[in-house]
Design brief:
It comes from Pseudonocardia benzenivorans. The protein is mostly helical.
Length: 938
């Protein structure tokens, strides 16, 4: 049977492009779009050998007008932090100094150019985005990342972050992977499947050294499922007799293994020196030909002789050492005798420079070890320290885990196991962390060792989810630590308080009462009193000595967190809790000051996981001030940070904003979704927030019976802190409107207990308004108006004018009622409190007043949340690079959004934004000094 070759089939990799017209067209369109400034990202996914690498190589060869950046995951390098990122960015390192200072420092640190504290990995991602965007200003950039399933975790996280933020740059990023991992999930995907039967037959015949029996050919085509690598490589190992006969070549679902076996059979047919060369190359993942040559010589042979004996095309030694396919590397390494592998790693360790590449040398030494070796374990420990300093938490954990295995001394092994567990928790590898803790528990531990285990278990529980599991674990750890390390014990008590606050009513043990009592009785550490100490004492007093005693301490503690003297570490760790302390003391100015401080410190430090919480808190403060524009912008930023970091934070800020805005179709579905998710997670405080939000919306809509149930549920929830007090105010309003006099009186009495000790206008104003609703009438309402006048609390002021006007109408004082209701309506419309504005219009009709329209839409309301946020920043004088750094975008993407803003607002310059947008933005205002006069906002 004569063989026919189809034109264009050719050898690998071109043969793998046979039948790929549609996939090639998709990739080519993406490259063309990127050339025009429309960034594209594609994940090219498919089974091993299906032709992903050939497609990526085709695109790279075709992009001669673009700067091509390449990286490839290597299975043996998955534990080396930022290894793939270094490959990709190396050609751009001369541009580092053009980046903003923090971004430049972050990349210099992770690449080992400079020493410094470990940067936040998402700050590293922002730096890579800026670096690529800067390069793309000169010429379009093509990033090709192959074998992404083997990327080290740090590189995968950064590249996933970058891919999700590309919009208007001349950049295209192509990932090749067997299946998208967590970091790439959700990105646009092109699935590469097997070739069609006709194309498979053509490719198989092109690669067969002799004519194939028709039945054998068809069986191979069917069983290979059109996999190009199988079709090209498997026939190379067949004899003429096999080609002419029938046999079962493959089993369904086992194709990659059979391809490896095919490569391995070719390896086994090579001379011994050639096999040893392949094993050295497989164990040396950087592809450095000098290292491979020196290691081969150290093993008693020469590379030239090994290459002269031939490698059957499986290995190429040029500027880099490359395998025909990654499956060749894995087949060679996995099939090698363990003793041969250890010998090769020993040789590679010997030829790897201990000064320039100490971590890879340590890894080779560890792979060469056959029994415990304290010297190698110490080297791995040093490598872990360096990895942690670069932000490579996963790599640090891997080094320490291997160090544990190589440590002979039991006490030292236990200590390293605990260090490895801590690194694993920090890296989010909770399974390995718990295994290491179980290993440590088998040793003879002192009290401090057992306390460390308890603490790490608690931290793992709290890091996985802010639910009900963590509080009792943290409480137990803190109690155990008391006689051993008083400072660490108090810090752990404060973390336990945080965990108990998140858990709320879901906490079955270790609730706020129990944590507070234990913290109050704990011994004091020596040394100066820190802001964290003040905060723990103040919060504990709430549940041990009552509000009268606690309020002055709460204000003192919150003031400490707003002051310059507090350490950045404390602000990052507990700043949001200081805002909760200020809210518990009804001090709105301190709420604003502490929230601003944490966001500012988190931004400067690049601590994005903390920023996800801080921006969420600040959004609540902005919404309570009636600054819905800023709150909306902060919500967009919170969503961006949450999505970028994967941080699980309930939508507290969005709930406050939605409640006050009052759009039923938006607010109530958010409430229901939050309750469902938070209940499943054991995050009780989020459930309490959601129930309070429901009560606000229903009160605004005038559905008081429904509001009564929601408010009572929120008020009765634990903990009885500021959200409970807010709910009691809603309960007073709903109960009084529903004719429930007893319920009104009981709710008012409970609210008074919450306000007791507070001297600020926020709490006193809410209490006075509630007294008015409960029956005190005009005097109480006027008192509340005076409390709120001159504060930032415009929603509370507007609601007070509304209920005062309603009270006047019911007593027939129509003229006075019209005055109050018009003030309320103007405020509601200017703020954007739509449901309350509609309720006010109904009241105005009832007093025979001319009912105003719904009010003009404020300039900028048609902007998206992100566009409005960018517009506000431009109005504040920020440059595009500064905005890009804040919002995790590139400067070019900021410019793209800004053009859309100009078009929507019908303006043409940045200067015109000052008049096009209403002046708001409490985020930009410094906290008012205590006791200073506040201009009226009413």
């Amino acid at each position: 049977m004569a063989r026919q070759r189809r034109k264009g089939v050719g050898p690998w990799p071109d043969g793998a492009l046979l039948g790929r017209r549609e996939e090639i067209a998709t990739l080519d369109r993406s490259v063309a779009a990127a050339r025009e400034g429309d960034s594209r990202v594609l994940v090219v996914a498919g089974a091993a050998g299906v032709g992903k690498s050939a497609l990526l190589e085709h695109v790279a060869r075709s992009a001669d007008d673009m700067r091509v950046l390449r990286a490839a995951g290597v299975e043996s390098e998955m534990e080396l932090a930022f290894a793939a990122l270094h490959q990709l960015c190396m050609p751009l390192l001369d541009r580092l100094q053009r980046l903003p200072g923090p971004q430049c420092a972050a990349l210099q640190t992770v690449f080992g150019v400079r020493a410094g504290p470990a940067p936040d990995r998402f700050l590293v991602g922002l730096a890579v985005l800026s670096l690529m965007s800067d390069a793309a200003e000169e010429r379009p950039v093509l990033c090709v990342v192959d074998d992404a399933q083997w990327l080290d975790r740090a590189s995968a996280q950064v590249l996933g972050f970058v891919a999700r933020r590309l919009l208007a740059e001349r950049i295209v990023v192509l990932f090749g992977t067997r299946r998208p991992g967590h970091e790439l999930r959700g990105l646009p995907e092109v699935e590469i499947t097997g070739l069609s039967a006709p194309d498979s037959r053509a490719l198989l015949e092109s690669a067969s050294p002799a004519p194939l029996d028709e039945h054998v050919r068809d069986r191979i085509v069917a069983e290979s499922d059109g996999n190009p690598l199988a079709l090209l490589e498997l026939p190379r190992g067949l004899t003429v007799t096999q080609m002419a006969g029938g046999f079962g070549l493959l089993q369904a679902g086992a194709l990659p293994g059979h391809i490896e076996e095919s490569f391995l059979s070719r390896v086994e047919s090579l001379p011994a020196d050639s096999r040893r060369l392949l094993l050295v190359a497989a164990a040396e993942p950087t592809g450095d030909p000098t290292l491979v040559r020196r290691a081969v010589e150290l093993l008693g042979m020469t590379q030239a002789r090994a290459m002269a004996n031939g490698t059957d095309g499986l290995l190429t030694v040029d500027a880099r050492v490359t395998f025909r396919h990654p499956l060749v590397r894995s087949a060679v390494y996995r099939a090698a005798d363990p003793a041969d592998r250890r010998a090769v790693h020993s040789a590679l360790a010997a030829v790897t420079d201990a000064r320039t590449d100490p971590d890879r040398r340590a890894w080779h030494l560890a792979s060469a070890a056959i029994e415990p070796d304290d010297a190698v374990a110490a080297e791995l420990e040093h490598s872990a320290d360096r990895a942690q300093a670069r932000g490579g938490l996963t790599a640090a954990a891997a080094f320490l885990q291997r160090a544990v295995e190589l440590t002979a001394d039991p006490a030292r092994r236990t200590d390293r196991a605990l260090s490895a567990a801590r690194a694993s928790v920090a890296a989010g590898a909770f399974g390995p962390a718990l295994e290491l803790l179980a290993l440590a528990e088998t040793a003879e531990l002192d009290e401090f060792g057992r306390a460390r285990i308890d603490l790490l278990r608690a931290e793992a529980a709290f890091a996985q989810r802010h639910g009900s599991d963590a509080p009792p674990l943290l409480l137990r750890a803190a109690r155990t630590l008391e006689p051993l390390d008083a400072r660490l014990a108090r810090d752990t008590y404060l973390d336990a308080w945080s965990a108990a606050l998140f858990a709320g009513s879901s906490a079955t043990a270790g609730d706020l009462h129990e944590v507070s009592a234990a913290a109050a009785a704990a011994p004091r550490p020596e040394g100066p009193v820190r802001a964290g100490d003040l905060l723990l004492d103040a919060l504990a007093l709430l549940f041990t000595d009552g509000r009268d005693t606690a309020v002055p301490m709460l204000e003192r503690a919150a003031s400490a967190f707003a002051a310059d003297e507090v350490t950045g570490e404390e602000v990052l760790r507990w700043g949001w809790l200081a805002t909760a302390a200020a809210a518990s003391a009804w001090d709105f100015e301190l709420c604003l000051a502490t929230a601003l401080r944490q966001v500012d410190v988190a931004r400067q430090a690049g601590a994005l996981a903390v920023l996800a919480v801080g921006v969420n808190v600040l959004e609540q403060v902005a919404a309570l001030a009636g600054d819905f524009g800023t709150a909306t912008s902060l919500e967009a930023e919170a969503d961006a940070v949450r999505e970028a970091t994967g941080t699980h934070v309930a939508h507290y800020g969005a709930l406050v904003l939605a409640a006050l805005r009052g759009r039923e179709s938006e607010a109530l579905p958010l409430v229901d979704a939050t309750i469902a998710e938070a209940t499943a997670e054991g995050e009780g405080t989020a459930v309490q927030y959601a129930r309070w939000a429901r009560s606000v919306v229903l009160n605004a809509l005038g559905r008081y019976d429904e509001a009564l149930d929601a408010a009572r549920a929120a008020a009765d929830d634990m903990p009885e802190l500021f959200v409970s007090a807010w709910a009691l105010a809603e309960l007073v309003e709903a109960a009084s409107r529903s004719g429930d006099e007893r319920g009104t009186a009981e709710a008012l009495e409970r609210l008074r207990a919450h306000v007791r000790g507070s001297q600020g206008p926020w709490g006193l104003g809410v209490e006075a308004r509630s007294r008015g609703l409960a029956g005190d009438g005009g005097d109480a309402f006027r008192e509340a108006v005076e409390y709120f006048r001159g504060t930032r609390l415009r929603p509370d002021l507007a609601r007070t004018h509304l209920v005062y006007g309603e009270w006047l109408r019911r007593r027939g004082r129509r003229s006075e009622a019209r005055t109050q209701l018009r003030i309320a309506h103007d405020l509601f419309v200017s703020i954007g409190m739509e449901a309350f504005a509609a309720r006010t219009r109904r009241e105005l009709r009832a007093v025979g007043a001319a009912v105003p329209g719904r009010g003009a839409v404020p300039a900028g309301d048609e902007l998206t949340a992100q566009e409005r946020q960018i517009a506000l920043m431009v109005r504040e004088g920020m440059t595009n690079p500064e905005i890009a750094a804040r919002l995790f975008l590139s400067p070019r993407t900021v410019e793209w959004h800004l053009r859309r803003v100009f078009g929507k607002l019908s303006i043409s310059s940045r200067r015109q934004l000052r008049s096009a947008l209403a002046p708001d933005g409490i985020v930009t205002l410094p906290a008012r000094p205590r006791g200073a006069a506040e201009p009226s906002m009413g």
